[in-house]
Amino acid sequence: MKYEIKKLEEHEVKDTIKLFRSIIDELHADSSKVERSHYKATHPVSKVKKQLNDKDSVYLIGKLGDEIISFMFALVSDGIGNIHWSGVKPEYRKEGYANLLLDKTIKAFIRKSCHEARVFIYPEAKGAYKLFKRFDFEEKSFIDEQFFGVGIILMEKKLAPVPFKKVAKKVVLTGEAGQGIKLMAHTLGNILAKMGKEVSLNIIYGAAVRGGEITAELIYSDEKIETPFFEKADIGVCLSRNKKGMINAKELIVEATAYDSDLIHPIPSVMPFAKIAMDQFHSQVFVNMIALGRLLSIIGIKIEKVDFESEFQSRFLEENTRAVKFGYTYQD
Length: 332
Description:
332 residues, alpha/beta, Aminopeptidase, Pyruvate-ferredoxin Oxidoreductase, domain 3, 6-stranded mixed β-sheet, 33% helix
């Protein structure tokens, strides 16, 4: 039978997610059932079905006849093709199918005008490491296991020259007073400024003295920012239910307890930041730093270039840095 690589279709999602979950069980065989469930929760059947027609999503499967034997889950963000998860059924490995699937994925990234491809892998995944090296991926950084229990290697492949000029990017952060939105916004702004970006930041407070809403609107660009205000953001991060209604952003990351299908559009990426903060750091204080890590990953900031020592007070340096790095690599 001929090996066929194709776009994932709705009627194939359930079988593909079943294969994805079996790969998680294999990769995290020594982890608890609860930990494995966190990884599996990143791609529920309902979410994958909704994202199939998203122009930035890359969902591919490899089939032999009617059997799905491999899959690729990837996402394009800010000119970077991010490989989230991929796998081949154990009985079909070492047949060259993974090579063909990765080649098809890279071509999809190029068609979507990506200048770079990125993947996080586990150090013990020797086969995966060799596969990406064959495709000229280079190891960029190693995040030690002390940060969240497992080591992670960041690998990148250049696909095209980085665009000299980029359009200004707009970010909106929303939450309640006390959730650290202001700290998150200032830290993000400082990181971008130190990387040579022009940055504009507005902090907007609600009328309530305590427990009111707080919104941070940030613009960053390679060129001078003419207008420091905007109506619609490129990326929005929401850490609490927004009483004003819809958050106006092209892409949304929402804390799981804040998700309200009646108020938020488009379909957001729902992340359990609060649960992660309690499970991994035993405190809700780190919700904003975990969310900041996720945001840095999505907008394509190389975490190894961030000087965390200059961003955080010394007594919070280790925990805040660990929380940011956890959020940065969480989905992978």
